[in-house]
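Q: I'm teaching a short session on how sequence maps to structure, and I want students to see two examples side by side rather than one. Could you give me a first protein with its sequence written out and its structure tokens following it? Keep the formatting plain so it prints cleanly on a handout.
A: Of course. Example one:
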Amino acid sequence: MITHPAFTVEPWAVTEDSLHLDVLAQSESVFALSNGHIGLRGNLDEGEPFGLPGTYLNGFYETRPLPYAEAGYGYPEDGQTVVNATNGKIIRLLVDDEPFDIRYGELLAHTRVLDLRAGELRREVRWRSPSGREIEVKTTRIVSFVQRSVAAIRYEVRPIDGRSLRVVAESELVANEPGSAQSGDPRAAAALRAPLQAEEQEVHDLRIVLVHRTKASGLRMAAGMDHVVETFDGLDMGAEAGPDLGRVWLTAEIAPDTPLVFTKFLAYGWSSQRSIPSVRDQVAAAVASARHTGWDALVQSQRDYLDDFWGRADVEIDGDGELQQAVRFGLFHTLQAGARAERRAIPAKGLTGSGYDGHVFWDTETFVLPVLTYTHPDAVVDALLWRHATLDLAQDRAKQLRLEGAAFPWRTIRGHECSAYWPAGTGAFHINGDIADAVIRYLRATGDEVFEAAQGLELLVNTARLWRSLGHHDHSGAFHIDGVTGPDEYSAVVDDNVYTNLMAEQNLRVAAEIASRHPDEARALGVDEEEIAAWRDAATNMHIPYDRRLAVHPQDADFTHHELMEFEGLEYPLLLHYPYFLLYSKQVCKQPDLVLAQFLRGDRFTPAQKARNFAYYEPLTVRDSSLSACVQAVAAAEVGHVELAYDYFGEAALMDLGDLEHNTRDGLHMASLAGSWLAAVAGFGGMRGFGGELSFHPRLPSALARLCFRVMYRRTCLRVTITHAEAVYELLDEGDPLTVRHQDEVVTVRFDAPVRRGWTVPDPGPEPRQPAGREPDRRRPR
């Protein structure tokens, strides 16, 4: 399944054993390093060649106009686009006056390794220059999880032809990097063409700090670098800086037994409010702190951080080495996206590329945060605090739309709505329910009473108010939500979308519960008993359509009345080959919608309903979204189609290592990477958290001998091991016992007292077919 010609399969790393320029951009995304605050694409150290250069700071963006051929009330006026910040990765090398460039001379060997346990990107190169000199270059790059503002590069060069060699290493900070405005939207490209205005440069010994400001959004950033060079006789050093370039050079005559070795420390910071001296001094202090810590201590703290993470989050798979690698790769990048975001968004691409303009969508709350809730809950509360920090903007948007409460944006960086296509943007109000769902899941998994009584309550109150004003009771008392778009973007502006209604029902009901539990805090938000009663009434009477003729839940009130799509001979993805009005009028799903509803709100469906719904929607779902495969894996496993679930598991897990959507060059698909964990834990582990109770319904495909995963629940780590013979539940932390449900049995797990139970899978009946040409590849273990 892995299509990159040089990736090898191994359990704890992604290794590229040779360089292929035709897939360079894909490798840059795969080898990206981040901590949620800083993101460095895996560009070559010397800067060229590149597929897409990229250095990103979470939340750092430029604005651009969103012109319309025909204006309409409530259309967003401005878009936001992630900015390629000052690049500190570049270390150019001259070998006897010839530039080290792998496109010239002869590349003798080239290996890169993304080490998932160490959190490092290592590179080893052997190169013969056009004049015949041979060198070896070794670099190691990290973005620190422990020192949030810091990244570092260890650089070593030596001759390998037995002769001394004169080299010059030029370490750079480069702003307004050429080739970075890669966008299919000409408005975005124009906004990103040299978006940074120089404000100040500071040089002190081998330390340089550059300060810039974006032209339109007015955000200020600083980037700093400093260097520690190992003792070396005859070394000449210097530094200089201009508006968009800072350069440190090191010149030496080196022998095979005396390589040139130095460490480059980087630091980044930005602010929308602070002054030039404040931002500059923050970065100067961060780079000084990194230098004081030193390379060895930074590397050790990185390993310690990841040892702790893997100890509570690892997923082990016996029987498929490719999936083992892919699931750990997905977990690592999910962690990188959110670990130190600290009240910033988690974009759909993380900080690995400029795809989707760097925007955050519902992907975060529905796919990424469930994983982090059970593996790194501190990152979840930070992500939710970011949503809370944008609440005023969501309230303003609701007022503009003539609604109460808050209308959170479909796509954004700062919190403003940036979707110019309202049917799939503003109309997708389910984002409110997704945010509420993430709040509820976090509260149930952690018991965080402080967050519940403050920001959690305020988020739930404002999202509930939107539903109450958006929906209405009919003459019989049933509550309807009309004119909305659910997760399936091939059905827009529909009435009573089941997913939306069920997420709203949960939102309204839990908002009422928590407001009643915290009456003083609720009153401070203007909530009274009458409003709570209105929420409960709407939740109790929420209309959930059901088609008795077909014995399935329609995706929305009219979906099953539409004409069936004829899939034979169609070109995919459909949205690039057929008009939306055609898609909107047919029974076709871009991605699971009703099926996702019965995963996230499975407490509202019977097992028989789930099986019938899955069988009905599987032949209609074309998977034109990277969000599809993981949901279908979970649903297929739950109803008993375990081998089909295994096929979808492979597709979700290998989305980027296999470049299945042919756009990994633009950045990784964070939702699908997180979705590989969902496929393993919620799919084959059958884990659910309805009503605050952890439950498990194990399954295992024939190709896998064993699945073992760890989850955090109420600050306790539970390990679940599934074989074909049994499921074993173990607590890895001393403390209170944990009660969980295994299939239909309640069991209590105590430390040092594993619980073992057999398991069964229901007979699912015939395996459903997919639309012609959209069948998942049959999984063959590697």
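Q: Perfect. Now a second example for contrast.
A: Example two:
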Amino acid sequence: MLIPATAILLLSQVGMSNGARLHQRRPNTVFILTDDQDLHMDSLAYMPYLQKHLADQGTTFARHYCTIALCCPSRVNLWTGRAAHNTNVTDVNPPYGGYPKFVSQGFNEAWLPLWLQEAGYNTYYTGKLFNAHTVSNYDSPFPSGFNGSDFLLDPFTYEYLNASFQRNQDAPVSHEGEYSTDVLARKAYGFLEDAIAAERPFFLTIAPIAPHSNVVFSEDWFGNNESVHNIKTTPPVPAKRHEHLFSDAVVPRTPNFNPDEPSGVSWISTLPKQNQTNVDVNDHFYRNRLRALQAVDEIIDGVVARLSDAQILEDTYIFYSSDNGYHIGQHRMQPGKECGFETDINIPLIVRGPGVAKGQVSHAVTSHTDLAPTFLTLAHGGLREDFDGSPIDIHGHSKDETRFADFYPRKEHVNVEYWGFALSEGEYDQRFFWNNTYKAMRLIGEDYNVYYSVWCSGEHQLYDLNTDPYELNNLYDATDHSAQFFFTNTAHLLTKQTTSSHQTGKSTSFHRLLSRLDALLLVLKSCQARSCTHPWETLHPSGDVQNLHDALDPYFDNFYEIEQEKVHFTKCEKGYIVESEGPQSAISFADVGARGGRLWSEFV
């Protein structure tokens, strides 16, 4: 069942700041989607046109997340509005991922461009779509849902000076020797001209590869043979006009950069400290990322100029984001992604457009799963019942209007998941790390800010980002679980031997906290539709628990600590295999009846 478009239109027109209302003409959208762009290494600060046209003229969403830190699964999540465990596209290549998996799962007949066309929009796309979308399978079948398309194709997608593009239903064309992002810019401007001339509302996606590393594949890579022998990664290649820039830039030396002590779990905890030569090479890698982004920044300026010349800039939303984040040196890791740290999952999202506040920063908790519902809402299309996300409140409706609470739920959570490998992309220590499979979540409230994960190896992570923003102190392993967790921004960990006389605010034992986090993760790891957007409702159908504080009531101790099964894996896999995923559903408090009312103190 769909939420009626008329209801979405009403929601989109009510509650804007200063009483502003959207134009009756449906707005256009331009979506610029970069590849592997970081939020935590200051790359946005090196993009002056982005700052001028988007950040200063729109709203930056500081707590926007991808739910899986890998290109193809993240993009399928984005374009379908469904979590990776519901798309079952969890890798970059078959059998667990890539364009062939997207097609086999039926999503070429059920994804955002088709829904936008049904809502009366013209749709255009140029750049990278999915991994394993190749010069051999581009027509098996053609991606559906576009009035105009010009896709980058593997195995040349990440070769900055050797790209192959495939337009509409034409054969692929090689652009050897041309700079990929500049070729992309020409194609984007062409589609923009087509869209403007058509005099219908339009949705245009521009998807450059920058600042992804330059990658050369062998054919074996696409045959489920992922190894260091069939992939060569090197730093991104900037355009000639930019290759001299930022000669003094280095990876920000945050506390988690190449720390003296190891951190994390599994393979991350075994990484050696990088020597100075290694650090210098990675700084060069970082500088080339910044340089490669300059051609993307120029696209922003070119798009804004053309929209302005056509007198439709004020009727057009511009979204800017990335498929996932990136790390270089944090936690001693070589360049790459695929992890659950903030560097990899907390990513850029900037929006400008009709009714969007200018120069503002939003701390609403949002994710890529919310983008398809958001785009459809702006297009006045009906929302799908199988969406695992909800529209992002880009206009600030929910600040004062409680009647929007269900449509724009004030979420505190993001589900995060990953299967299979992690890859080191720099010059040093190029290798695959397997069993990089985990379920995780971010939980953010007014006075708590935590990351919790369970790995297929049985290891756990718990970080309090209010006191440990760089995720160096894994409280799960380091803490006596009877110690106290404090809900204040200035709190610090107390053990049984320390006094709490100077502490203010709420506190709870780590044992009680972990039981709630694990139960919430149990819901999110296999959630569908409303259980993804309202997970506490699954655990407490009566509605009396809506956040972490509510759940920590001692009245629920038995329910969480005794009755609820714990998140675990039965086996490490390279993809989503349900039989190895451990428990698939949480019990609700209503199911345990009177048993749930007994306090934990009765059992100890």
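Q: What should students look for in example two?
A: Point them to this: Residues 58 and 358 are 4 Å apart (CA to CA). Also worth mentioning: Confidence is low (pLDDT under 50) at residues 13-24, 490-504, 596-604.
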